[in-house]
Amino acid sequence: MRTRLISVLSGVLLALCAVFVAAAPQASAATGPAAVAEALKQSPVYVDPRASAQLPKDRADALAKKIKDAGKPVFVAVLPATGEFPADSVLRTVRAETGITGLYAIRLGDGFNAGADKAVMPVNAVRNLTDAVKAGGPVDAATQLDNFVDQALLQVKGHAPASWSGGSSAGTGGVPVGGLVTLAALVVVGGGGAYALARRSRRRREEEERAALEKLRVVVDEDITAFGEELDRLDFHPGERGADDAMRADYGQALDSYEKAKDIMAAVTRPEEVRGVTQALEDGRFALARLDARRQGRQLPERRPPCFFDPRHGPSTEDADWAPAGGAVRTVPVCAADAVRLREGRDPMVRTVDTDYGPRPYYDAGPAYGPWAGGYFGGGVLPGLLVGTMLGSMMAPGPAYASDLGGGFGGGDFSGADFDASDFGGGDFGGGGGFDGGGGF
User: Fold this and answer.
1) What is the dihedral of CA 221, 224, 230, 231, to 10 degrees?
2) Distance (Å) of CA 51 to CA 47, 57, 80, 82
């Protein structure tokens, strides 16, 4: 009986494979948004055969692998500028046909645009990221898309769709035979294969989270230690002459923040939980700034974000113009010492962290430091603050920077074509007003 069952199932598998392989050449000629969507369901990158010169297969495969390895819902398509893909609607159409919540980027001829469901990236963040990618002027598709994906993977929320588990690295305009053969195999083995794939995916995400947390632990422990040293140098005693209740309250809040930061860090199990530690440290530093003003008889400081270059410098005292290497000028909050350095034409004292490529400024060190920065600069502080850096435009106004987004569909979830177009927004293709205004390329 068992032998017969295996024989029957094997026959089914061979028949399905034969059908899929036979169908592939005929389907490879299919084009249009529907074909793009079908390919994107199986792989994060699609290159229309008529646009293959823009993104060679090896570059497309490498880009697809990068996105898959990150496990994020980022979809990329390279399409010819033809009437088949109307510039003013192609992004929404592809999103509707694909039916998966995520961040979508399309290179249409020499134009570029991106849009995202708000559940994975705020509209302003998509705009800032798109503008940053296009700011350097015309570039080849491979360079532009690599740049976009590198920054997008640091910011986008959610997870890759389960349908990417099989299939070829990048779609090339035909039926994704590899994905269909995988599906046929799952029919034979039942739910066991799907369970194994899900378990591997979950295990990979857990390993990535552990690695990110270990990177964060080093930096956050340094911050906690630095704040403890500030308390030791303070030389304030609640019973000293001149001390009043307001001073004692500030001092008590600083001590409480220090203990709170240590307690939270001791219990942290996920990277996003680190945000609570840096929030507590920021509260403590502001309490010390108030205490210092009271002791010196100065006006109490207003609540401002910490120094952008290194939150350990304490609350900022003013805003200053600054640009990262090769980036556009933007206004950032700075401490008094860094404000002087900038006015004198010197480099600010930037917080660096260890990376595989040596010490780097925290804003160019990768996504692991998002929760750390989020605790210091959360709440939509200074739109576009980090455009052009590795942490990108994550501080643009929108849902809770560097924290999980609740409600609605998460990235990678199937929502079908019945989604609210007003929740899908981004930049423009160089001529129109983007998604919010119905714009175009």
Assistant:
1) -130
2) 6, 11, 5, 11
Closest to 426 (Cα-Cα) out of 49, 70, 120: 120
Q: What angle do CA 81, 83, 88 make, to 5 degrees?
A: 80
57 CB neighbour count, 10 Å cutoff: 13
Chain centroid to CA 48: how far? 26
Nearest to 116 by CA among 104, 98, 127, 130: 104
What is the residue-wise DSSP string for 228-279? HHHHHHH---TTSTT--HHHHHHHHHHHHHHHHHHHHHHH--SGGGHHHHHH
For residue 376, give the amino acid letter.
Y
> Alpha carbon of 322 to those of 9, 308, 326, 396: distances in Å?
65, 10, 11, 17
The reported pTM is 0.50
Residue 111, strand partner residues: 108
Do the Cβ atoms of 274 and 375 come closer than 8 Å? Answer: yes
Task: Using CB atoms within 10 Å of the CB of residue 62, give its burial: 0 to 12 exposed, 13 to 18 middle, 19+ buried.
Answer: middle
Strand order of the β-sheet with 111-117 is: 45-47, 74-79, 103-108, 111-117, 424-426
Query: Alpha-carbon distance 219 to 221, whole Å?
Result: 6
Tens digits of residue pLDDT in 19-78: 444 444 333 446 789 999 999 999 999 999 999 999 999 999 999 999 999 899 999 999
Rounded Cα–Cα distance for residues 273 and 352 (Å): 21
CA angle, corner 180, sides to 179 and 186, nearest 5?
Answer: 90
For 313, phi and psi rounded to 5 degrees? -70, -15
**Cα–Cα distances in angstroms (integers) from residue 217 to residues 261, 332, 369, in the given order:** 12, 26, 10
Per the CB < 8 A criterion, the answer to whether 106 and 416 are in contact is no
- Token pair of 420, please? 């609210």
DSSP letter, residue 347 = P
Q: Quick one: which of 348, 49, 12, 420 has its CA closest to 190?
A: 12
Are the C-beta atoms of residues 87 and 80 closer than 8 Å to each other? no
Task: Specify whether the CB–CB gap between 48 and 80 falls below 8 A.
Answer: yes
The residues, any chain, with a CB within 8 Å of residue 387's CB and separated by 6 or more, are 128, 129, 131, 132, 327, 328, 330, 393
Q: What is the tens place of the pLDDT at every residue in 355-400?
A: 877 888 888 877 778 788 888 886 544 345 555 565 554 444 333 3
